Amino acid sequence: MPRFSLALCIAVAAALNANYATAQSTMTPLASFGVGGWLAPGTTSAFVTTGVTERGLAWNPQTGNLVLVSRAGGNNVRILDGNTGADLGGLDVTGVTGGTYPINMAGVGDDGAIYVGNLSTSAASNFKVYKWDSEITGPFIPPTAAYDGISGLARTGDSFAVYGGTATSAAQFAASGSSAVNNSGFTTGLLDGLNTSTPYVTIPGTTTTSNDYRLGLTFVDQSTLIGNQGANARYTTFDAVSATVTASIPLGGAARRAMDYAVIGGTPVLAVIDSKSSIVTIFDITNPATPTVLTSGTTTSGTLTSNPNATGSVQWGTISGNTATLFAMNTSQGIQAFSVFLQPPASATAFGAGCGSPALTLSAIGAPVLPSTIQLSTDNLPATTAFGFLAFGFLAIPGGAAIPGFPGCLQHIAPLTTEVYFTLGNSSIQMPESYPAIPAFAGISIMAQSVAVDGSSILTSNGLRLYLETF
Fold first, then answer.
1. Cβ(145)–Cβ(132) below 8 Å
2. Are residues 125 and 217 in the same domain?
3. For the segment 365-404, what is each residue's pLDDT rounded down to a tens digit?
4. Which of 306, 341, 376 marks a domain boundary?
5. Domain total for the chain?
6. Could you read off the pLDDT of 19-36 as tens digits, one per residue?
7. Number of neighbours of residue 27 by Cβ within 10 angstroms
């Protein structure tokens, strides 16, 4: 079909999305929280101080409240209103003992169970994680031990993250600490009271001192996490035997440490706080090795007390479409709250897999910025291929749909239009795609897939999501 048919389809989609916001990503102080989005030390809570006693902060998805760990005046686990920052009371800490610090970092399961870990600074000292079933019973019932064992690390508890957790499935944890080691490491396990965990201490691609997982941990999924000590975060997959760094995420500053991962509006993002300035930066990590800064900001003001240990916590809150709340605590510098709107930049993201040996692939040379012309490259074409076509549409097929008669080849998109190409014996074909200077097209996603005709057979590529934007 002629190229203008694609432009016509885009125009139709633009008309259907006339109310789509085209503004860039923003971080707005959550005005109801503290004063102008900042719960400054020494203002409304005796447990938010300029000392080094507050390091752990977690968000409860069941209540929208925050869990604050504070050692100011003793062992305190406080519940803060997620909208205002008001102190709603503390949890019963009877029986909380042991460790260099009996309590240090916090996490909350999907079911609202609250977990607080200690800080163990010896390989022979147990790492402990305490569990309160909920905010409702926590003030009256002491915690149980969800984990109390040797972690396999020389130091554990400077960083801590929790993933999952339901009435029938135990939450998972990851923890690490600041220590000189031979290759960086962390430990993971289930918070089920059985005290079993798996340490990963010889991870290729990590630094040999200080520990790349020591000051920040956040789960991507149950077998993937991101660890950070500053400068370069490690995107890491793990199984029952080993851990592998699949990408290093350059954060643009050695002081960018505490962090949290989320998917907002379909975009995987990482929020990181600077342990010196308290500036919070949000990165698009669709391609972790080449992150894009979406927005940054701070609600703090005046002269800030230094954070000598570079500790703190960042937590995403409620997520709805392209909007979310975000909380960030820098030790000694209080707690910030933001309302976030994320407008990702133009991007081309592959999904699914092609067929063939090697598999047919489709990629973009450039990003679909309005206006611009990029190249869509079909690669690994067999020498016997005569021609093929690019298919375009607006809908992806999750997981792909099998194509009858062509085993292993999947349809990844629902096509609306096509463009034919002739291979002329080439193993790679590049097709130009132009995007006009029409801001109304911003925010539209176009799905593409390449199909090569090889005699009586066909080969299909991976899918490609082209996200149009003005930047």
1. no
2. yes
3. 999 999 999 999 999 999 999 999 999 999 999 889 999 9
4. 341
5. 2
6. 444 458 999 999 999 999
7. 23
